[in-house]
Amino acid sequence: MAMKVLMEISYVGSEFCGWQVQRNALSVQKTVQTAAETLLKSPCAVTGCSRTDAGVHARQYFCTLENENLDRFPLDRLPLALNCLLPETVGVRDAFPVEKDFHPRYRALGKEYEYLIHGGRLKNPFLSERAFFCGRMPDTDCMQREAQDLVGTHDFSSFCASGGKVEDKTRTVYFCRVEKLPGEQVSLRICADGFLYNMVRIIAGTLLECGLDGRKSCGTVLSLKDRRFAGRTLPAQGLYLDRVFYRKEDLEMRIAEVNGK
Amino acid sequence: MAMKVLMEISYVGSEFCGWQVQRNALSVQKTVQTAAETLLKSPCAVTGCSRTDAGVHARQYFCTLENENLDRFPLDRLPLALNCLLPETVGVRDAFPVEKDFHPRYRALGKEYEYLIHGGRLKNPFLSERAFFCGRMPDTDCMQREAQDLVGTHDFSSFCASGGKVEDKTRTVYFCRVEKLPGEQVSLRICADGFLYNMVRIIAGTLLECGLDGRKSCGTVLSLKDRRFAGRTLPAQGLYLDRVFYRKEDLEMRIAEVNGK
Questions:
Q1: Which residues of B are catalytic?
Q2: Could you give phi then psi for residue B145, rounded to 5 degrees?
Q3: Chain B within 8 Å of A89 (Cβ-Cβ)?
Q4: Helical residues (DSSP H) of chain A, grouped into ranges
Q5: Which of A18, A214, B22, B197 is the most buried (most CB within 10 A)?
Q6: Contacts of B254 (CB under 8 A, 6+ apart)
Q7: Cβ of residue B123 closer than 8 Å to a chain A Cβ
Q8: Are A126 and B59 an interchain contact pair (Cβ–Cβ within 8 Å)?
């Protein structure tokens, strides 16, 4: 019987059309599937924890792998063996057996994203494709203040791109934290039970506007429930899926850790 | 009369054949020259502070730019204007006028390089082309101890690739420091009055061997004055030109700072 394995992977999204398989484009899903099929010499089913847009990165991403030969393969050697077959931009970090009905997307209790902004006046080549180059430093205290209005359970219609098909736009944001990092970088970390289409990139764009001219109010935008009042959708290159939580304890510990800072 | 400007730049070396212009290959020098000639609409002379090998990165690099129209161009706008014409992987950070006889290579009093090793067991896609993936963690205390034998004025024949044309292989190393960084990374920082061909990459390879099996003695290798006794030349992708010193005070402050740590 085919065995199911949950794999922890990470990838640099720059060269990919995102996680999801697409016609005429290179996806992470297809890349992982091809490597697994080469290794296991038979068809593999690969299911991810999230669709990510083209150019979005993942420091921690989970996907399941199902294959009939998997139970004859030593699991502790799976990451190293797959890494040899994967391109430099995708790496497998761990693998564990899971039950047949485990779904990496529906089982996730929460996800944490980071959005990186480079606030220097002059470009930094080492941040190319890794952060959004904004050209000047926003007021991060103001951004952090405004971000607190998003914490809690709200209708996030204002922060959802128009192509989203989801009816219920209520989500619970566990934390939203803006911090200055060395090298003129600004980090926005947001953790929620789920995210709408382009939600993090629109929140990042709105908070950046708050930090640059101080006129926008995040709470007002939220209450208007209309995408037109939010800021622009910042580009994918600054966005990182950072953590995915499957256990309540891990999620609670992380929320306490970030709030305790 | 043509004006001479000293520019501080940085670049990700992955896509370049190095600094120096080469036939049939993309060099950083040619890339900067082309951008400057597009901006200033006449031939430009660009001279660098160091030849770097293909794939080597530079966080701080200096080059002079000479052009007859340069004195009519506002110097404070030169970095931004050039950045718009340069690819994502090269950035101009600053520009200052210098005397006609200033040579960025001969005027440098010292250079500091960093060599980055990723000592994790599993690859990290975000360090691809940015660090040398070694596959296991070396003993950094041992590396740091061994590195101290290189500090001072010595004949570095053991750490010079054959092919180098320099007769006098005596150099003065101001500091050589091995440190563990977060994310299973090891940083080797070395500062000297000058470096021989592949010197940092051979020193990194020798110290890594010390840190992995502990049998090699850096001091013995140094005293044998023979390349065959040193370790392998580590790949270019882990090497960064980090700082270039033109003023005695800056160099002395940096030496005191690193030694005081």
A1: 53
A2: -60, -50
A3: yes
A4: 28-40, 78-85, 140-147, 199-213, 218-224, 248-260
A5: A18
A6: B112, B191, B243, B245
A7: yes
A8: yes
- Which chain B positions have a beta carbon within 8 Å of A59's beta carbon? 126
Is the domain covering B3-97 a CATH 3.30.70.580 domain? yes
**Residue of B79, B88, B125 with shortest CB distance to A125:** B88
Nearest to A125 among B12, B121, B122 (CB): B12
Q: Which residue of A has its CA nearest to B79?
A: A122
Residue type, B101: D
Is the Cβ of B78 closer than 8 Å to some Cβ of chain A?
no
- Provide the pLDDT for residue B100: 93
Our separate counts of H helices and E strands in chain B read 6, 10
Q: Can you give the residue ranges of every domain in chain B?
A: 3-97, 110-260
> How many C-beta atoms lie closer than 10 Å to residue A215's C-beta?
7
> Residue A83 is nearest to which of B80, B91, B122, comparing CB atoms?
B122
What CATH number should be reported for the domain whose range is A110-260?
3.30.70.660
Which residue in chain A is spatially nearest to B126 when comparing CA positions?
A12
Same fold, A3-97 and A110-260: yes
